[in-house]
Target: Endonuclease/exonuclease/phosphatase
Amino acid sequence: MQMTLATYNIHGCIGADGRFKPDRIIDVLQEMNADIIALQEVEHHQVEGYDLLDYFAVKTGFTAIAGPTLVRRTHHYGNALLTKLPVLAVNRIDLTLPGREPRGALDVTLAWNDRRVHVVATHLGLRPSERRQQVRHLLKLFEIRLTEIYVLMGDLNEWFLWGRPLRWLHAHFKRPPHCATFPARKPFMALDRLWVHPRRRLKSLEAHSSSLARIASDHLPLKAIIEI
Model:
């Protein structure tokens, strides 16, 4: 049986034309027909009477899990997960370092028939030193899950292909294909990443580069098919 996953930095629903158009993002989500989608840069907006994330859930039929990293009275911002699968557990992880922009991860346990799937969705910091500490933290989440199927995905902001964060992640998960997702119109940087354990479960990994995806955000979504 196969499952489709995706990770997508939606850039607050601001497209290449500078316009806030959440319905374009919804159309891209529906194009991918995924079972689980990690989102980054989800802003708090009211759209037709709904909070933006709730609006996504209503329009797509997904269950929405919020993972805000900035929470204010009038402004929430951060990660989210959309899923068609039953949710068994949610753990929100703080990856923020002193003096830096708040960062976090969603650690979610989902049911897939008689199996459990652990998904960690994240958006890492801009400085190399941040990412090194954040990746060390994330890898600890997987130390006790050697018999589980688990996934790490999100916008890693890691453009140094030789950097330690990617080397550590490749060593743990084994290396997946390199897929450029940024900038969306002419991508040449693989800022968005997706790893699966066991590696043999990953059947395909590619950037979703439809004409709509190239203008809906500044990132292309990254889409994977895994076999369970």
In short: Helices lie at 22-32, 52-60, 128-141, 164-173, 213-216. The mean pLDDT is 92. The domain at 2-227 is CATH 3.60.10.10 (Deoxyribonuclease I; Chain A). DSSP finds five helices and 13 strands in the chain.
